C-alpha cells in the first residue's frame, strides 16, 4: 500500500505547505501591516486555516464521484494494479478530508472570535493608539469611505456583527450544516438510522453555498496599492498622529477587502459532481425489468433483473431505488451475476427499515410488482481478482455476494475453455451464522464441484464453509452423518466446519503452498471480520511469498 501512503503524505504535505505559506504572507506582508496592528497573529491564523479549508473542500467531493472512480479503475490503461489500489480507499480518504475540514473550521472560527473581540476593543478605545485611530477611519467620510474595522461604531457588539454580516451569517449556517453532516455520519447512525444519515449528508449543498458566499463580505482588508505608494507603513506608521496635518507627507491609509476566492477552489469539483449526478439521473431513468423474484431462507430476497445496454464486471455493485418506499433513497447492492449472464441479480438481506419494506413489498403476491430504478454498475476491488495467480476469498454472511459473481464467472470461463485465465488457484472461505444461509448459492457450489471434476481440475477451487451459530443438535446430527459422501447441511462434498477459521494456520498453509506466487486476499463482511486476517497477513506472506 505504498502508493496509498504516498498520496496521504502528499495530502498532509500540501496542507502544511498552504498553512505555512499563507500564515507567513499575512504575518509579514506590508499590505496587512495596519490590519495586524489591530488583530495581531490571529489574522494570519484565520487566513491560513481558511486556505486549507478551501483546499480540502475542493477535494471532498472527488472520492464520492462513483463514475469517475469506475472510469479510472476500469478503462484507463495506465491505471495498473498498484495505481488502482488507492481507489479502494476512496471513502477513507473522504473521511480524512472531512476531519481536516472540521479541524480547520474550528481553527478558523476560534481565530475570528479573537479578531472580532479585538475589532470591538479597538473601536471602543479612546487612548489615541494606532489601533484606535485605524478603527476610527470608518467614521470620516473625508477618507473616501475606506475602512479597516467592520465595527462601524463603539455601540456595535460582537454578536450583532456576527449575525448581520455576510461573513458571519454564511459562517454560522455553513458550520451548523457541517456539524449535522459529521455527527450523523457516525457508524451507529449510518447503520441504524440510514435515512437520517442520507438526508443530513445532503446538507453539503448548503455548506458549499455558504462557503462560496463567505468571502463576499470582504471583512478582511488590506492597504491598497496606491495608498502603499503614497503612505507606506514603514515611513508613516510612526507618525500616525500627523496624518491629518496639511504639512504631513503621509496621508491616512486607504483599505480594500480581499476579493472572494473560496468559489474559485470549489467550482471545478462542484461542476464535476453536477455532471456525475446528471449522468446517474439519466442512467437511472432507463427501464428495469424484473424477471424473477426468489425468497431465500434467513430473510434474503433475490431479484433478477434486465436492463438495456447494461454491462458489468465481476464484484461490481449497483445503487437501487424503490420509489414506492422512498423517492430519494438509493442503497448499494453487490451484483451476484457473472458478466457472461444476460440478467443481473442482487441479494437483499433484511437489515433496516428500507430493506424490510422492500422484502415485504415483494412478498405481497396479490399486489403489483414494485418498480425498481437502478444506477450503475460501479467498480470495486474485486475486479482485480483475475490479475492474481492465487486468490483467497473470505466472505461472511451476505458478504459472499461479490465472490458469488467471481465464482460464476469462473464457471463460465471453464465452460468456454478460456485459455487467458491467469488465476490458477482459489481458496474460498464462507462464514455464516445460520445453516439456511448456505442455500443462497448452494446450486452454484454444486455446479462448480461437478465442473471441476469433469475437467480434471479438482484442486483449482479449495473452499471451506464455517458455521458459527450452531447448537448440540446440529453438531450431533452432522457427526452422525459424517461418513456420508456429501455434507448433511449443504449437500456438498466438502464438510462444514463448526466455529471460526484459525487464520494463522490457514494463511501459513497457503503461503507455504505458493512460495513464489502473488497471493491476492479479498474480504467482504463486517469490519471485525478483517481485523484478525489483516494482522496475520503481513508477516506471513512477507516471509513466505513474493
From TrEMBL:
GO terms of biological process kind: defense response; superoxide anion generation
Catalytic activity: NADPH + 2 O2 = 2 superoxide + NADP(+) + H(+)
CDD domains cross-referenced by the UniProt entry: NOX_Duox_like_FAD_NADP
Magnesium as UniProt keyword: no
Residues that span the membrane, as ranges: 6-24, 96-114, 158-184, 196-216
Major subcellular location class: membrane
A single GO molecular function term of this UniProt record: metal ion binding
Localization: Cell membrane
Entry keyword Cell membrane: yes
Topology in the lipid bilayer: Multi-pass membrane protein
GO cellular component terms given for this protein: NADPH oxidase complex
Domain FAD-binding FR-type: 274-384
UniProt keywords, alphabetically: Cell membrane, Glycoprotein, Heme, Iron, Membrane, Metal-binding, Oxidoreductase, Transmembrane, Transmembrane helix
PANTHER family membership: NADPH OXIDASE (PTHR11972), NADPH OXIDASE 1 (PTHR11972:SF71)
Protein name (Swiss-Prot/TrEMBL): NADPH oxidase 1
